[in-house]
Design goal:
Layout: E1 3-10, E2 16-18, H1 39-42, H2 48-54, H3 70-77, E3 82-87, H4 93-104, E4 111-114, H5 118-123, H6 130-138, E5 143-147, H7 153-162, E6 166-170, H8 175-184, E7 188-191, H9 194-203, E8 217-219
Parallel strand pairs: 1-3, 1-8, 3-4, 5-6, 6-7, 7-8
Antiparallel strand pairs: 1-2
């Protein structure tokens, strides 16, 4: 896979930290939100033990792996990946901080910023309705993302052919979801098993290796 989807929150002292959930309670030994803790505490926090327990069949063990920062991910992988960075959290400073880091690393051409909060993106879309597609186009966004099983050929055609937007699927939880997203014409999808998607695209005669960076994006384990 050439693209990853990552969730970014802001620590109490302004560091951009990768973490999905609203609270830390279920996956770390900390309690409360990312915004309740400073970066030093968060970056010493074990997330790997939770992953091991949630994925007992995985070949590798990750106990001791800690929460990373967005800067660490950019520095480790650079131009090798396309990053779909989802804004998590309500801090008004969060979108600007992400944009500033992307620019500082020279990765504007490798980053797509997404959010469920339209205002976040207007300051700096994950879309669910046809009117959101029109709003995204009017705001000069480049892409909308719909839940896989809510996508229809008509909505995809409206986004891509009428409004000139890429359209990508999220919420792909099964092979049926993946097949549906392919069938309705999605440009790409956020998925936990990119190998399965890429194999299916090759079966269909799609040049997955030559496709755009959004053809298959990896969704971090939830």
């Amino acid at each position: 896979a050439r693209a990853v989807e990552i969730d970014v929150r802001m620590s109490r002292d302004g560091e951009l930290v990768l973490f999905h959930d609203d609270t830390l309670d279920a996956k770390t030994r900390l309690r409360g939100r990312v915004a309740d803790h400073d970066a030093a505490t968060l970056l010493a926090t074990d997330i790997g033990s939770w992953f091991d327990a949630a994925h007992p069949g995985a070949g590798r063990r990750y106990a001791g792996a800690t929460l990373p920062t967005l800067a660490q991910v950019f520095d480790a992988h650079g131009d090798a990946l396309h990053y779909h960075v989802e804004i998590k959290g309500a801090q008004e400073a969060l979108p600007d901080a992400i944009v500033a880091l992307v620019r500082a690393r020279g990765l504007e051409h490798r980053v797509t910023v997404t959010s469920f909060d339209f205002a976040h993106l207007e300051r700096g879309l994950l879309a669910s309705q046809r009117e959101r597609i029109d709003a995204a186009a009017s705001a000069v966004f480049s892409q909308v993302v719909l839940r896989a099983m809510t996508m229809t050929p008509e909505v995809v055609a409206h986004a891509r052919d009428v409004r000139g937007l890429e359209i990508r699927a999220w919420g792909v939880r099964s092979t049926a979801d993946m097949e549906h997203a392919i069938a309705v014409g999605a440009n790409g999808m956020t998925i936990d098993w990119p190998d399965r998607l890429l194999a299916r695209l090759r079966e269909l005669g799609v040049d997955a290796d030559g496709a755009s960076a959004s053809a298959a994006t990896v969704q971090g384990a939830r």
